[in-house]
Write a structure and sequence with these properties.
By secondary structure, this protein is of the alpha+beta class. The protein is built from 6 helices and 10 strands.
Length: about 260
């Protein structure tokens, strides 16, 4: 015969003789229990039914709570609110790792396992979605920055053409009335003739690659704009010539490290 202490959850095994002759017994927690009358020494409950009965008794007495079911509900709610999936995983883990063995089986341990699995799956899907969202947003922002180079070089071409109409030649930056619109790219008309991005110390941010040669002559010019969009060793490079031909020579985003 088996009794369950509703105070601590300890199961007390009684022999047939004790069940018939002893009026009471004590749990390890010192709680006294009256031994109920049984019909015979061979009376043993179905284990599954016994567990279900003890679970209902424990929950009615407030000793055990259906924490696993709550954890599963919280994990499912995490599909709508990101932090809840973490809370559901934590609650499910608490049921399996934080509760005494006597109470674990009565606290929805199967639902707690489902809460952990469900929470992890939801969390993985949410992280995957957020990573994709941030990558799309980063690509959009970078695309807008690249468009700045197009606008700045187009403006430089207009200023040079106006200077050509007035003076019959092209000019360096020192002679041009040119101010970058955004200042995100460093624009070169010569190795020592540039405007644009500088750091706090006034130093040029993006050095000119050695294989690109900007130049200004009386009848022609070639300007190079450079930027580093992803902080690697490669640069984003644009080139415009006096003919108005604008070329995106190197796309920093398309290069693989």
């Amino acid at each position: 015969m088996r009794l369950t202490c509703l105070k601590c959850g300890q199961q007390i095994e009684l022999s047939s003789w004790e069940a018939r002759h002893e009026p009471y017994t004590y749990c390890v927690c010192a709680t006294e229990h009256v031994i109920p009358h049984v019909s015979g020494p061979s009376t043993f409950p179905n284990e599954r039914a016994a567990v279900a009965t003890r679970t209902r008794a424990f929950r009615a007495a407030g000793i055990a709570k259906n924490t696993g079911r709550v954890a599963l509900s919280v994990s499912l709610a995490g599909s709508l609110l990101f932090p809840l999936s973490l809370l559901g995983i934590g609650m499910g883990t608490f049921v399996h790792a934080g509760l005494p063995e006597q109470l674990r089986i009565h606290s929805g341990f199967r639902q707690a396992l489902g809460a952990i699995i469900t929470g992890v799956l939801i969390l993985v899907l949410q992280v995957w979605f957020l990573v994709g969202w941030f990558e799309d947003r980063s690509s959009l922002e970078t695309g807008l920055i690249q468009e700045m180079a197009r606008e700045e070089l187009t403006k430089l071409h207009r200023v040079q053409m106006r200077f050509l109409d007035e003076h019959g030649r092209y000019a360096n930056f020192s002679e041009l009335d040119f101010n970058p619109i955004y200042g995100r790219y460093t624009i070169y008309l010569g190795h020592n003739d540039y405007v644009g991005a500088r750091d706090d110390n006034g130093e040029i941010v993006h050095p000119l690659p050695f294989d690109y040669v900007p130049a200004v002559r009386a009848d022609s010019f070639r300007a190079v704009a450079v930027n580093n969009l992803d902080e690697d060793s490669e640069l984003d490079i644009w080139v415009i010539e006096d003919s108005g031909r604008l070329v995106h020579e190197v796309d920093d985003l398309q290069l693989t490290p």
